[in-house]
Design a protein that fits this description.
Blueprint (H helix, E strand, L loop, with lengths): L2 H19 L5 H15 L5 E8 L2 E8 L6 E2 L4 H9 L3 E3 L17 E8 L5 E9 L7 H11 L8
Antiparallel strand pairs: 1-2, 1-6, 2-3, 4-5, 5-6
Length: 156
């Protein structure tokens, strides 16, 4: 899939999710649905899901993929780096990222998107791992940021 096709595919997913969420404001239900749709509709998504901040911990949330680490040690790894910077983090080769936390040894690249609530407080991250090296780019970043805004979107 080239960049243009990937972008169009993401837009289609965004519209589908946007339609589904109009009838359900439950953020857990929405995160669960986002993880399921992305995991099964995007190519090469090995693990797709959320880590959520709770009492200064990042605990696993709704996800698709093999068994994940339950809790990520504070200020360690890619997810915490995204939380601390409040920015998207793209890691082309996780083996070169200092203190990367390995939940699945097949993972070679990763993207982490911060999740903000309706008051713009950071409440967690969306994390996607891939078996491919350099699987994620700006097209993924822009579209996954947009999709994450749907978790707390309010509909009239
Ligand atoms: N690799 C992550 C940990 C979560 S797993 O990828 C599911 C990290 O270093 O934060």
């Amino acid at each position: 899939m080239n960049s243009e096709e990937k972008n169009a595919h993401y837009k289609h997913i965004f519209e589908k999710l946007n339609g589904l969420f109009a009838v359900c404001s439950n953020s857990v239900a929405r995160m669960t649905t986002i993880a399921a749709v992305l995991h099964h509709k995007m190519d090469n998504f090995l693990w797709t899901g959320y880590y959520l901040l709770k009492d200064d911990n990042l605990d696993v949330g709704p996800y698709q993929g093999t068994l994940a680490c339950m809790r990520l040690k504070k200020d360690t790894g890619v997810c915490w780096s995204s939380v601390n910077k409040k920015e998207v983090v793209i890691v082309p080769d996780v083996h070169k990222f200092q203190d990367h936390i390995t939940c699945d040894s097949r993972s070679n690249s990763e993207i982490v998107i911060p999740l903000f609530d309706a008051s713009n407080n950071i409440v967690g991250v969306l994390d996607v791992d891939s078996e491919l090296f350099s699987n994620f780019d700006e097209v993924d970043a822009l579209n996954l940021v947009a999709i994450n805004t749907l978790v707390f979107k309010q509909y009239e």
